[in-house]
């Protein structure tokens, strides 16, 4: 099996560790949140890989991005990364069905930096419905960046909504696009989550609205650039 792992996993391949060491940049607040999440949050391993977050920050900065969509809040690591990357007048909309983990583990840490914390707009409830509301409110084509890392069976719907909401030249990162290598194994695609991710990878690859590349970064990162 090819190398697929988040750098903070103890089983991470030396190549993954080496690449991460030469990619990841974290401020102390990010390090603190990562340690707190991995040590105390339920299912802490859902935390986004820091190398993927740095990768996303680089896109936001290079695009001059001001508005970001963060589908899947958990404890807030990805929302924090995007909030650090957007300018002072930027904003990050972060979506989750339940923000309990964010409030318990994320807010006490993120709120230490009020300037960054205030850029984060939490939206609680089913993310598909929340994204649809943004579209209905005339927000299509107004966002610069989107990150998808929530319930896997909804990935196709999340991708579709994010493409609609992004401007031309905007970028979408879809996390867990290899799911530990499982999507590359036809025998494991009977699992609904693996099947949904595989379907999303196919949709992105064939989508005439975007240019894309599926990367072995973190747990797999599918990058789509809106034409």
UniProtKB/TrEMBL annotation:
Keywords: Methyltransferase, S-adenosyl-L-methionine, Transferase. It holds the Pfam family Methyltransf_3. InterPro entries: Cation-dep_OMT (IPR050362), SAM-dependent_MTases_sf (IPR029063), SAM_O-MeTrfase (IPR002935). Coiled coil: none annotated. GO terms for biological process: methylation. It comes from the Eukaryota. One of its GO terms (molecular function) is O-methyltransferase activity. Belongs to the class I-like SAM-binding methyltransferase superfamily. Cation-dependent O-methyltransferase family. This is O-methyltransferase.
């Amino acid at each position: 099996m090819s190398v697929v792992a988040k750098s903070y996993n103890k089983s991470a391949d030396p190549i993954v560790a080496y690449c991460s060491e030469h990619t990841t940049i974290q401020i102390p607040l990010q390090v603190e949140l990562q340690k707190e999440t991995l040590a105390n949050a339920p299912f802490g391993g859902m935390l986004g890989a820091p190398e993927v977050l740095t990768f996303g920050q680089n896109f936001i900065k290079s695009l001059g991005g001001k508005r970001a969509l963060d589908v899947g809040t958990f404890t807030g690591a990805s929302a924090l990364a995007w909030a650090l990357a957007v300018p002072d007048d930027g904003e990050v909309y972060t979506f989750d069905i339940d923000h309990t983990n964010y409030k318990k583990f994320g807010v006490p840490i993120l709120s230490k930096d009020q300037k960054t914390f205030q850029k984060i707009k939490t939206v609680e409830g089913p993310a598909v419905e929340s994204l649809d509301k943004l579209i209905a409110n005339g927000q299509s084509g107004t966002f610069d960046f989107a990150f998808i890392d929530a319930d896997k069976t909804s990935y196709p719907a999340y991708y579709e909504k994010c493409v609609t909401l992004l401007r031309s030249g905007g970028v979408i990162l879809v996390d867990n696009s290899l799911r530990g290598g499982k999507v590359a194994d036809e025998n494991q695609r009977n699992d609904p989550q693996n099947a949904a991710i595989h379907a999303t990878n196919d949709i992105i690859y064939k989508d005439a609205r975007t240019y894309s590349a599926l990367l072995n970064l973190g747990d797999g990162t599918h990058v789509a650039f809106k034409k």
